[in-house]
Amino acid sequence: MSQTHTTSHLSVEYNYPIVRNFMVMAVIWGILGMFVGVYIAAELVFPALNFDLPWFSFGRLRPLHTNLVIFAFGGCALMGTSFLVVQRTCQTALFAPKLAAFTFWGWQLVGLLAVITLPMGFTSAKEYAELEWPIDILVAVVWISYAIVFFGTIVKRQTSHIYVANWFYGAFIVTVAILHIVNSAALPISFVKSYSAYAGAVDAMIQWWYGHNAVGFFLTAGFLGMMYYFVPKQVNKPIYSYRLSIVHFWALISIYMWAGPHHLHYSALPDWAQSLGMVFSVILWVPSWGGMINGLLTLSGAWHKLKTDPILRFLVVSLSFYGMSTFEGPMMAIKTVNALSHNTDWTIGHVHSGALGWVAMISIGSIYSVLPALFNQPKMYSIRLINVHFWLATVGIVLYVAAMWVSGITQGLMWRALNPDGTLTYPFVASIQAIQPYHLIRLLGGMLFLTGMCTMGYNVLKTILASKSAASVAHPSIAPSQEIIAGGK
Fold this sequence. Notes:
- By secondary structure, the protein is mainly α.
- 71% of the residues lie in helices and 3% in strands.
- It is built from 14 helices and four strands.
- The two termini are 33 Å apart.
């Protein structure tokens, strides 16, 4: 049911329940997905944890972890915040509310099917696209419904201006639809098994065109839309440079599409394609840092708020990790660096500095920022628990990423070490033994981050229960002036 909220000059029935649903499910999926991640990290330290059962093997649980964290947790956070932002900045109710409800339930069904099928071994074996063809079709249908709701809301907007956050959300929605549909083309041989419609180097190229742009648009452009709304909103100031945000947008979406081949250095891919991916990856550093700087400079004159606002700390730390990850990624795309880093834990560290440091932290901060108002509460149940969560998450990320950096460089150097006669200095098992302490530190970091998510879950639950006991969910109190602040030009 839609709820009425009056702005300064018009009355609009915003659809807040759908936003609430996505926010709550983002927390639930986040806890579940990160628990699976911690469990498989523990398996690498204590292999007996797989109990010699195929359902608990690393090879089956790892794609479950990535799908739940990226698509279930990240997807719910993106859909929920985009439905909030597009309504607030366009000053109009969500288009096709029944279709929006279908999007919510359909996306939860996708997550549930992933939980069922991946541990059973039903997989296409394509990175970030492991779900089999019937689920892929469901994903496409749900995603198209999501696009209709989002762009339909923009079409019926009450403002002439389209705020930049919606540009990023829109680009993410359109591009992910194209990526998913093209990469998931398959030849089914049964209800639970299919083979890719492509073969050989072409299949690899399309897979990493999809895989890297799943990072570039799902895990970057979408969450930049989140950043461009929630950072100004939390700081209570306009974005530092609206012009820079537009330059950031066009530069990012123009360059990102070409970066995928850097995943295939020293492979059967034509050398010119590898070099093209490397060059565009290096260029990508510039617009990425333009967005980070724009976000951080929005805090000019307001840095003192970090002392008292733990939600703002989440947002600022996420920007810092965004900057670090978008410097590290182009560096790792350089062929000579990639020769050392490829297939090592360094890549795992890089992925998680982006996934935990950028994606999870910006999502957590955004959820904390808006959830109390969605349940008509003045603030979260416990600010102290938000502080605890922040430090658990930050320390956890640092331990995780630093351990993987050292582990990866150790692996790369040991694999490349040669004796004078050209034979390998170290057997492969020696590198496995050498990195065990770092895997233990990684496990500790993951456990800290998961503990932080559980803390958030408790805080969210208590906030919801407080609203239920007061029977006051009927009128969320998001200040109307905040749309003007978030939409500064």
